[in-house]
Amino acid sequence: MSPIAHTLVIGFLSFVALVVIIRLSGKRTLSKWNAFDFVITIALGSTLSTALITPTVSLAQSVVAFVLIVALQFVITFTSVRSKRVENLVKSRPTLLLYEGTLRQAAMARERVVAVEILAALREHGIADVESVHAVVLETDGTFSVIPDAGTSDSALAGVEGVPSR
Questions:
Q1: What integer best gives the mean pLDDT of the chain?
Q2: N or C: which end of the chain has fewer CB within 10 A?
Q3: Does residue 163 lie within any of the structural domains?
Q4: For residue 129, what are the CA distances in angstroms to 18, 30, 156?
Q5: How confident is the model at residue 138 (pLDDT cuts 50, 70, 90)?
Q6: Are residues 79 and 29 part of one domain?
Q7: Maximum distance among all alpha carbons in the chain?
Q8: Domain that holds residue 132
Q9: What residue stretches are annotated with the YetF-like N-terminal transmembrane domain (predicted)?
């Protein structure tokens, strides 16, 4: 088979196999990305790329590699739900960047976030007054959660790094 024919045939079949495997693996594989999900996605893309351009890699090898990566992702996420140590190894914790209207400079520096990014998140949520904001949290997927009003407790901030004790 010519290299171009190989790329067309194996590429198409590998792509179909990857889509089927991802659909069978469940919603977790397609969730918002944290660092672990990013690595899985890169590994799947790299495997597909290798299948497309390397004539010595068979369709069976590509499918086995896809299944292996998705299976490892399943085992690690399954284990992380049941083990705090594994969860801490795989996932980061959300970080408090602004609390009761005050920017937390040390947390911002540690997370490499600048004030203009936090202000942009506030504007996206229709908030004009920084001092009226209860909290801004950098989530594990890199998004900002804005909590405009404290209510009666900080229960939504459970598990967030840097929340002061009340």
A1: 85
A2: C
A3: no
A4: 47, 36, 21
A5: very high
A6: yes
A7: 70
A8: 95-157
A9: 12-78
